[in-house]
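User: quick one, sequence for these C-alpha cells?
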C-alpha cells in the first residue's frame, strides 16, 4: 500500500497569492483521495517498461514524475523563428487562416504584455468592471460597491464561449460572449486588504458579486477578426450571474435530503455559483460552467456533525472549527456547523441559456459532484450526448456522462425543451486505465469506463442514485478507477474523434515515493493524454490511450512531443485548457509555467508529419494565467481569457506587479487576437 504524505508548504511556480485565493492552498493540505486505487503514473510506467525505445527516448527516461534530479537546459531554447511552415499567400506571417498555423512562434518571455506573433494584432474585448447591464455605473476602483459589481463584468475570467446573434442595428456582425469568473483576489482588488475577518461587509459583498458568469453582447469591427464590447443600446441578452443569483437544481438528486437546508427545504433551489472554471458549449446553444474549488468558501464556527465528516474530508471541507473567506459573516449558509448541507449544493455543472435571460441557471446533478474543470460535449454515433468531465484535484479521476435520449436537431421550441432535459437522464462513468501488454513501440494502454449510476439505478453497492451523485468521489473510490495528476480540461477533437485530457501537474509525489520506475519527486510540468474510444464511438465503455505530450523543456530527456523532433518545438509547462480549430489542431493554454516564462497559448497538429510540433502562439502578462482559448469557426480570431494579471507575491494596489491592460491597476480581461 502506498501512503500519500502531506505536502510541505511549497507552491511550485505559482505565487502564494494564486494558491491562497484560487483554491485555498489546496496543495498544502493532505490529498483528499486516500483510496488504494492505482496511480496513472504507475500504469504509464508499467507500459513503458515493456518496450526498449520510445522514438529515440531511452527506457526509463520518459516517466510521469516532473522535476528531474539533474539540471536541464533553459526554457530559452524555444523553437527557432525559422522553424515551422511558412505562409505562401503574400499576407505576411499571419497566413490566410489561423488554423494554417503559419506563424512564427513567440519566444518565452516575462514581458508585462499580451505578446502575439508577427503579423497578428490583439485587443481587449471585456475587462473586470466593464458594463454588462445597460444601467451599470462606470467602474471606480477606489469606490467599489456590490450593487455596481452585480451589473459589471466580473473578476478573473476563465471559460470563453461566443454564440452568434446575427447582424446588429447597423448591419455589423454581433455575438454573445459568455464568460466564467472563477475567483476573486481581494489583495489586488482593494487597498489595504489584510484578510476576510477584518474586511468591511461591503467588500465581502463585492467579492460575492464578482463571482459567477457574464453574458455580454460583442460586435465585429468591420471585416476584420477583431471584436469589441457593445456599450450602447438595449443589449437584451446581457446578464450577470453571481454568488447570490437563484439557481434551479435538476436531475435525480434534486430534492434529496442531502440538498435540503433550512432556507431551502425543497432541496431544489440554491443561491449562487462558485469558483466557475472551464465549461462547454452545447449544440442547442447553452453554456456549461464547472464549479471547481468550492470547498474554500466554507468555514465552521464549531464542531461539524460527525455524519458529514467522511464526505467533508473527501471534498476538502472543514470538519472542525476553521476559518474560510469569512463570507459567513454576511451569509450564515457558508457556516457548515450551522448549515452542513449547503456545501452539497456546490460542485456541480451549471447550464445557462444565454438566449433566455429570464431563465434561471440550472445545476445538473446527473453529471456528478466534484471539482469540475469543465464539461465540453460531443455526440455518440446514434445521436446521444456525451460530456467528458475532469476532477481537478491531485490523484482524482476522469469521468464521462452519456445521455439516455438523443439530441434533436430541429430548431423548434419543442426540440429546445427536449434538449434542455438531455443532461438530466443518462449514465455517469469513471475511467480506469491499464497497460495493454503489447510491445508495440507506443507509450500506451487500454481502459474501461466503469458505470457509477444511471438516473434510475445505482451501480455502487450501498449507495443510492442520489448519494452517488452528491458524493461522487466516495462512490468512485469504491469501484477502482485510476488516480490522475489533476485532470483538467477534456475535449474531443471534432475532426479526428480522439479525446484529449490535460493533466496540469502533481507536486505531491515525495522523495519517499521515488522508485526505479518513478525516479523524480514531482510532476511539475504535466502531460496530455490522447484517448480513442472503441469503434470511434463516444458511448463506448472501453478505450485505448497513449501519451501525446510529456511537457517541460525540450532539452530535458524526460519530455516527449508526440514523436516530433524536440529541437524544433516550443517549451511548454502545465497544460490546462484545450481547444481545437477547424483543421483539428490542438490549442493548449498553460497555468503555472514552471520554465521561468510567462504562461501562454500553444498550438500543435495531432496527425501527419507535424504531429507534436508544439509552437507558442502568445504569452500573457506578468503573473497571469492563460484561460478559455477559443478559435472562431471562421478561423479568423482567437479569444483568450487573461486571468489574474499581476498576481505575484508581494503585489498590492499600491505596488502592482502588472499594469496590464490599461497602465493602472491590473484588470483580468478577455482579449482577441487576429491576423493583422
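Assistant:
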Amino acid at each position: 500500500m502506498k501512503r500519500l504524505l502531506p505536502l510541505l508548504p511549497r507552491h511550485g511556480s505559482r505565487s502564494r497569492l494564486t494558491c491562497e485565493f484560487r483554491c485555498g492552498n489546496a496543495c498544502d493540505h493532505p490529498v483528499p483521495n486516500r483510496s488504494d486505487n492505482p496511480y496513472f503514473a504507475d500504469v504509464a510506467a508499467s507500459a513503458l517498461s515493456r518496450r526498449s525505445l520510445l522514438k529515440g527516448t531511452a527506457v526509463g527516461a520518459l516517466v510521469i514524475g516532473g522535476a528531474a534530479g539533474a539540471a536541464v537546459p533553459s526554457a530559452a531554447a524555444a523553437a527557432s523563428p525559422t522553424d515551422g511552415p511558412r505562409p505562401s499567400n503574400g499576407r505576411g506571417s499571419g497566413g490566410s487562416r489561423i488554423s494554417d498555423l503559419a506563424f512564427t512562434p513567440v519566444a518565452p518571455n516575462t514581458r508585462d504584455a499580451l505578446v502575439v506573433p508577427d503579423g497578428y494584432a490583439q485587443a481587449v474585448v471585456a475587462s473586470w468592471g466593464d458594463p454588462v447591464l445597460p444601467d451599470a455605473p462606470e467602474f471606480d476602483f477606489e469606490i467599489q460597491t456590490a450593487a455596481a459589481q452585480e451589473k459589471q463584468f466580473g473578476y478573473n475570467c476563465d471559460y470563453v464561449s461566443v454564440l452568434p446573434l446575427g447582424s446588429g442595428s447597423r448591419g455589423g456582425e454581433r455575438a454573445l460572449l459568455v464568460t466564467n469568473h472563477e475567483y476573486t483576489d481581494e489583495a489586488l482588488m482593494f487597498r489595504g486588504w489584510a484578510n476576510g475577518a477584518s474586511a468591511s461587509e461591503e467588500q465581502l459583498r463585492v467579492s460575492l458579486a464578482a463571482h459567477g458568469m457574464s453574458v455580454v453582447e460583442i460586435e465585429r469591427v468591420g471585416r476584420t477578426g477583431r471584436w469589441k464590447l457593445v456599450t450602447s443600446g438595449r443589449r437584451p441578452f446581457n446578464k450577470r450571474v453571481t454568488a447570490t443569483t437563484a439557481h434551479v437544481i435538476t436531475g435525480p438528486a434534486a430534492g434529496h435530503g442531502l440538498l435540503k437546508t433550512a432556507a431551502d427545504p425543497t432541496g431544489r433551489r440554491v443561491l449562487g455559483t462558485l469558483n466557475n472554471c472551464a465549461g462547454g458549449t452545447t449544440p442547442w446553444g447553452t453554456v456549461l460552467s464547472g464549479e471547481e474549488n468550492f470547498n474554500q468558501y466554507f468555514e465552521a464556527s464549531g464542531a461539524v456533525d460527525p455524519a458529514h465528516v467522511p464526505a467533508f474530508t473527501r471534498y476538502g471541507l472543514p470538519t472542525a472549527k476553521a476559518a474560510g473567506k469569512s463570507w459567513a459573516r454576511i451569509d450564515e449558509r457558508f457556516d457548515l456547523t450551522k448549515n452542513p448541507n449547503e456545501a452539497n449544493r456546490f460542485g456541480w455543472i451549471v447550464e445557462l441559456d444565454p438566449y433566455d435571460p429570464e431563465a434561471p441557471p440550472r445545476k445538473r446533478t446527473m453529471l456528478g459532484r466534484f471539482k469540475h474543470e469543465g464539461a465540453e460535449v460531443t455526440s455518440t454515433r446514434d445521436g446521444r450526448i456525451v460530456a467528458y468531465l475532469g476532477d481537478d484535484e491531485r490523484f482524482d479521476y476522469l469521468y464521462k456522462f452519456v445521455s439516455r435520449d438523443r439530441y434533436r436537431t430541429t430548431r423548434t421550441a419543442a426540440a429546445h425543451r427536449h434538449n434542455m432535459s438531455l443532461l438530466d437522464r443518462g449514465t455517469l462513468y469513471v475511467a480506469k486505465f491499464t497497460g495493454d501488454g503489447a510491445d508495440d513501440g507506443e507509450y500506451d494502454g487500454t481502459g474501461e469506463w466503469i458505470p457509477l449510476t444511471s438516473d434510475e439505478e445505482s451501480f455502487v453497492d450501498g449507495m443510492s442514485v442520489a448519494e452517488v451523485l452528491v458524493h461522487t468521489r466516495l462512490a468512485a473510490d469504491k469501484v477502482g478507477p485510476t488516480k490522475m495528476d489533476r485532470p483538467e480540461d477534456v475535449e474531443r477533437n471534432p475532426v479526428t474523434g480522439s479525446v484529449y485530457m490535460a493533466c496540469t501537474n502533481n507536486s505531491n509525489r515525495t522523495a519517499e515515493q521515488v522508485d526505479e520506475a518513478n525516479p523524480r519527486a514531482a510532476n511539475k510540468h504535466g502531460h496530455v493524454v490522447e484517448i480513442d474510444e472503441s469503434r470511434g464511438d463516444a458511448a463506448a465503455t472501453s478505450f485505448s490511450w497513449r501519451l501525446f505530450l510529456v511537457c517541460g523543456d525540450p532539452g530535458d530527456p524526460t519530455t516527449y512531443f508526440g514523436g516530433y523532433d524536440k529541437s524544433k518545438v516550443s517549451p511548454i509547462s502545465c497544460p490546462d485548457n484545450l481547444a481545437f480549430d477547424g483543421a483539428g489542431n490542438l490549442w493548449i493554454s498553460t497555468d503555472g509555467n514552471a520554465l521561468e516564462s510567462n504562461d501562454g497559448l500553444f498550438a500543435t497538429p495531432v496527425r501527419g508529419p507535424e504531429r507534436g510540433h508544439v509552437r507558442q502562439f502568445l504569452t500573457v502578462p506578468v503573473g497571469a494565467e492563460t484561460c478559455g482559448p477559443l478559435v472562431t469557426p471562421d478561423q479568423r480570431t482567437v479569444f483568450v481569457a487573461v486571468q489574474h494579471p499581476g498576481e505575484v507575491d508581494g503585489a498590492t494596489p499600491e505596488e502592482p506587479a502588472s499594469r496590464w491592460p490599461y497602465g493602472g491597476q491590473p484588470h483580468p480581461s478577455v482579449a482577441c487576437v487576429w491576423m493583422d
